[in-house]
Amino acid sequence: MIILALNCGSSSVKYKLYLWEKRQTLTKGVVERIGPGDVCPDHRTALGQIIETLTTGENAVIRDLSEISAVGHRIVHGGEKFKNSVLINEEVLEAIRSVQDLAPLHNPPNISGIEAAKEAFPNIPHIAVFDTAFHQTMPEKAYLYPVPYEWYGMYGVRRYGFHGTSHLYVSCRAAVLLNKKPSEVNLITLHIGNGVSLTAIKGGVSVDTSMGLTPLEGAVMGTRCGDIDPAIIIFMIEKEGFYAEQIDSILNKKSGLLGITGKYTDRRDIEKAAQSGDKRSQLAIEIEVYRLKKYIGAYLAELGSVDALVFTAGAGELNWKLRERVLENLEGVGVKLDKKKNEKAVSREKEELISADDSPVKVLVIPTDEEIVFIEDVVAILEGRYEKHTQFTYSFEDPKYKRKAE
């Protein structure tokens, strides 16, 4: 069974072709610079390029499109309508359209990708996997905002959370490493890439997460501001006369680490500049670490007892200095880092325990694998054995599971 996984962004399409029986990635890639007047005008053209790459030339990996059994689509925002992955039909597609105003930067290209793929592959199943689904277990006290309650009923204003497949994967793997079932662990998972989100996991399910109605809320990110006083927006509109689109662009694309440094989004560049004496880069590091510590403290208080902290995604997996700074002086709450283990844990493939042997709260570095969650959901739906993630058992929950390098 061959599965094509598509992740359609506003200006790019990432893809992976996966052979299920051998748990093997046949090929993967990305088409970038999509848009009117750009290299690739639209998602239909991008998908045509992907199909040509898969089937023609010396790098072809399949002979015919009929070899593909299904297409899986990453959907950023499912609102409250979707608590698990689903087979896409017209009703589902319309429901995804109905919540696109909650993710105007993400859902429209997701929808364009579905429409283009259904045209190219009209006779095979198409399945939607939602970033928000994992967080639908949050209680009302965590997902409702203290704003007029009517906003929730009328417009769906609430916390949704994102990076769900990543938090799901690493929480299941953490349970394995702790010799427990997922339902037996309390965790704080830190997905630290260009986008950053933390999740409090109690008994294996999400009970709170740092991103909110949109991916803008929460920790300091590469270009997103994270938590700010909302009155800042009104203040700056009065001072500068910004339109809504300008404010949106500034907070999403010109803030965060970029906003503080004025130059950098990549933490490697920030670290290098900070070591050279750049004060704003030093400040960016301090602010990011401070915000991450605050979330860890809040989630420790909410969970009561925590089995482990889990670092994942680009910086979470590779930036040992960031991890060390975040965990500094947390011994009082049971987190004791082994600095030598931490420095050595810089792999995108290997799972590591980096806490001291006597640390009451363990610290793990687990490379994320969102795609395997994606693929397993698709296959399980095709085989008629899929259930929502709280009842479904993934292959990577098995202690004998070994992740294959790509």
UniProtKB/TrEMBL annotation:
Any one Gene Ontology molecular-function term assigned to this protein's record: acetate kinase activity
Primary localization: cytoplasm
Cofactor: Mg(2+); Mn(2+)
Protein residues bound to Mg(2+): 7, 370
Organism name: candidate division WOR-1 bacterium RIFCSPLOWO2_02_FULL_46_20
Chain residues that bind ATP: 14, 191-195, 266-268
Top-level taxon: Bacteria
Lineage, highest ranks first: Bacteria, Bacillati, Saganbacteria
Residues annotated as the enzyme's active site: 131 (proton donor/acceptor)
GO BP of this protein: acetate metabolic process; acetyl-CoA biosynthetic process
Pfam family, one: Acetate_kinase
Gene: ackA
Matches recorded under InterPro entries: Ac/propionate_kinase, Aliphatic_acid_kin_short-chain, Aliphatic_acid_kinase_CS, ATPase_NBD
Catalytic activity: acetate + ATP = acetyl phosphate + ADP
EC number: 2.7.2.1
Top EC class for this record: transferase
Cell compartments where the protein resides: Cytoplasm
UniProt name for this protein: Acetate kinase
